[in-house]
Amino acid sequence: MAEEVLRMQGITKIYPNGFMANRNITFGIGQNEIHALVGENGAGKTTLMKILFGMEDCQEGKIFINGKEEKIANPLDAIAKGVGMVHQHFMLLPSLSVAENVTLGVEPMKNGLFDYNTAVKETQEIADKYNFKVDATAKVSTLSVGQMQKVEILKALIKGAKILILDEPTAVLTPQETEELFEQLFKLRDSGVSVIFISHKLEEVMRICSKVTVLRRGECMGTYDTKDLDESKISRLMVGRDVILKIEKEDPQPKEAILEIKDLHRYNSFGKAVIDGVSFTVHSGEVVGIAGVEGNGQSELSEVLAGLSEFASGDVILNGKSIKGLSVRQIRDNGMAYIAEDRMVEGVSGDMSIEMNIMADRFTKPNYKTGLFVDAKKIRKETEELIQEFEILCDGPEQPVRMLSGGNIQKVVVAREFTSGANFILANQPTRGIDVGTAEMIRKTIVRKSREEGTCTILISADLNEVLECSDRLLVMRKGKVVAAFPKANEVSEDTLGEYMLGLKSMTPEQMEGLL
Amino acid sequence: MTEKEKKTVVETSGTAQKDPRRTDAMRKTQRIEAIMEIVRIVAGMAIAYIVALLILVAISDDPVFIVKQFILGPFSSPRRIGSIVNLAVPFTLCGLSMCFMYAVNKFNLIGESIFMLSGCIITWVALAIGQNMPAIILIPLLLIVGAIVGAVLSFIPAIMDRKLNANVVVVSLMLNSVIAQLAIYILRYYMKDPGISFIGSYELPKQIQFATLFGKMRIGAGVIIALIAVVIVSIIFFKTAFGWKMRIVGSNPKFATAVGLSTLGISFAAQLAGGALAGVAGATEIMNSYKRFQWTASTGHGFDGLLVAVLAKKNPVLVPIGALFLAYVRIGADVVNTSGDIPYEFISVIQGIIILLVAAESFLSGFKNRLIYRSVQADKAKKSA
User: Fold this and answer.
1) Is the entire prediction scored with pTM above 0.90?
2) What's the ipTM?
3) Same fold for the pair A4-239 and A249-334+463-516
4) Is the CB of residue A23 less than 8 Å away from at least one CB of chain B?
5) Mutating which of B248, B259, B261, B362 best tests the A interface, going by the most A Cβ atoms within 10 A?
6) CATH 3.40.50.300 fits A4-239, yes or no
7) DSSP string for residues in B270-312
């Protein structure tokens, strides 16, 4: 084994809400190694990396870098000790150039002033060295997501990072961009940088990593050579049981149209079309997936359908009634349920009890009232039933939602939305950032409701695996338009999908005829 | 929930996924959070007192006497204890009023002038039509008039906030000066009693000047109105759909909108309700503590209400406690002022420190986190043993 450059020994971290995120975790990384850190969400991967990068402190444990014990007080300290981190959410200044972003904090100076030309030169040198195709003088706001990620990596490299942490780097990338990233990671590895690769995507882990450390519920399940493992073995280590990555489902039996979107347009405050003439119909008993690189109108479409924002022209007909001008309440009463993209913003109120969160859409209805008051008994009984049905792990209905883990918070959301009696479910990123077990439950429920109860579902997801597995029909959105439609989602390959998402290909209206 | 029910819930939810890190530790964590909340408030008050004492030592000739007067003075006679309660009555009502505003995160401070104008208007009504009306009709009538005055006045900042997106704090503060002058105008030109040496209205009908209770303590009957209000507001907050809506809107407006609640409408209605309660507060105070309407400047009760609501963490059940505490501090300042060489303004220093420490959520959080850590550790040790 190559010389160990990093060792984290016996790390224990307890958050102020009493949640033990890491429990006595020990693992080490060798030189010239791409080391995967895998685990369900909430398993403690991000926490562990935040400790390494000095963003969180831990109650117990030691960190050794190149065999020497180090205390890492803050991210600056971590950078000084050769640790760099690329976060899931980029931390860039969009109005500045690539060079300015990359050299931020280590600015070359001339006569006491920032030396832009040297900054560009230094940036371009290091970019060329690792074969990163970015223009150092370009403004960050003009870059694609994949290029921004490269800028983030360059930021770490220019500060001399020898250990590079990548937190779910491929989540935002198209398959083609992912390939490019892997090439660059191999180059980095060969030039002596150790990479910690956090990912959910096990086939990526198998492909590029030589070692894998598995976390489960805050504990380390061990470090393995990837050649001794396969995907199903890793997922068994992650969740403690076999996870069926494929969803078994019968063919859909689409019946009457429930949701009709007709030539929908919406503009942002700058007058730019964010939804540009979208038309399609969803029928009872089918799941329609919407794939696309984030920021191509999916969120805007979902806001319109949920009644949270207006649209300029066109129409949306739900159960035979236009939603134009209706309140969210009226649209919900007309059969809509909404799993929001960001659960902490629109999905729950963190400080409120589980009970109030689950009942939030229905306690105003007459059958939940006794005279002037809410029917506390009935509400409590139904809440407890739903907590059981959806297996929400909690202390009871009165516990504030913020004390739960991400997966359990999402269970609170779906316990409400799946039981509201709606026949149209709008699911926007329903499984983002939650554990595999909960994600599986949510996906299966979506499919089951469509087959058994005849609900119509729109599934918007950045997780290609999810849209491909769950959906019956699949649409691709790009720049506010539907650019591709496939009759059977599970027959589409990720690569094909990527080409449409990136705009390398697009279908003509004739090709999509009958599929919208 | 009974113990037995609690147990079944835990068991059934536990069967799904056994996660040993959670349930026990989390319940303890909740308890530590609750205890630390109290510790934090008590420690905040203690620090405020220590600072006050230090200042007293510096500026007073007889610090020990002043300190004693300040802490124990309010309890030194039944009359003074009664005064605390009497002072806590408007504080409670105004605190409840601010709970409504605060619950939906609208810092509508119009209660300050509602209190004054409501007192003025009910005096005018009582003088105009109430001379021969029995108390049992007149008192409820005047409370309703006060509530209407409050609802109408708070409508202005609320509707401007809703329709024009005008900042509710600015609008209500500006309106306060206008409305206070309106009350003074009515007093001077429509009901001033020329037969008294100060500016004041004619005397209120005798039957609505509240009787005093509890003998020497001389606690006004207004305390009954305050207690009824606490019960009603608590029921509204925790038992009615409107209360639930307000709390959801206040804690996360985007979530409230997404589940189909009318965020704008609910916060609007909450502000009207809060205004009505401020009106009741003004009416009650006039009948409880005065023979005439004689306010010639804004009384500050509206702002005190905000203070009480913050101390009570916008929980109406805790409002009387916050109100009593504030009244105790104020009476202490009164005692010191009359019996020593310390100015009344001194008390605003202590108040400021208390509010700072109580409102500062992170105060003592390091200590709290250590407690939580230790309890989780102990749990772990127990399990592995």
Assistant:
1) no
2) 0.79
3) yes
4) yes
5) B259
6) yes
7) HHHHHHHHHHHHHHHHHHHH-SS----S--SHHHHHHHHHHHT
